[in-house]
Structures are given as C-alpha cells and as structure tokens.
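Curious: why this fold?
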Amino acid sequence: MNKSISRLARLNSIVKRDSRYRLEAYVFVMEALHHEVEKLKKKTSRIRHLSAGELMEAIRKLAWERYGRLAKPVFEHWGIKTTADFGEIVFNLIEVGEFSKTDDDKREDFDGIFDLEELITLYPLGDARKDNS
C-alpha cells in the first residue's frame, strides 16, 4: 500500500473513532504543520518540533490565506469551535502515528490560545494572500 493510501486509511480510522471532526479538519491541520515546518526549514535548514502556539499560529495564517473571513464558519462546519478542538485533532493524529510529541506536550496546551472570532477580526478586509507575516 502506498503512503498516501495508508495515510488516508489512518485518517479515516480517526474519523470513524472520533466523529466530532470532519476529515477535512485533519487534512488542514496536517497541511498547516507541513507548511510551517517547510518555512522553518528554509530559514534555518533544520526541522524542529512546533509548540502548540506555533502550530496554532500556522493554522491561523493558513486559514486566513485559504478562507479569509470565512475561516470561522469553515472550521465550525468541520466541528471546530475552539482552539482546544485543534488540540483534540493533534492528539488524535499523534495516536495514529501521523504526528509526534514530546513528553512536555499536552492537549491543554491548545486551550484558549485565541478565540476563533479573532480569525475574522484580527485581519483587515482585502486580499488575504498579502499577509506575509
């Protein structure tokens, strides 16, 4: 079985076991992590572990870039209401071997990082692709 099919099977097993979140939410979190790791690798030529805060900032940026002011409703459609939900998604991905963690990482690290309403209010109207921060 190739890597993509194997990964999809693992993601489907998560969704069957924990139906709170849609498959798209897991894929999005994986893409945000990959995007941030690649960005860090370009800057430092190294890959390192991301903290919950760093991953949430990567999620926020990718959400704004892809969905703009519709990010919050998209997340809600996927079953995500708070940043704690992202912690649940991350730890589900850890359980199936898609992500790794350190001994210091915990689900609670994702609690209250920001309010999803901030996805809309923190960014100005206009082209989301112009946000290069």
User: Anything to note?
Assistant: The chain has a mean pLDDT of 89.
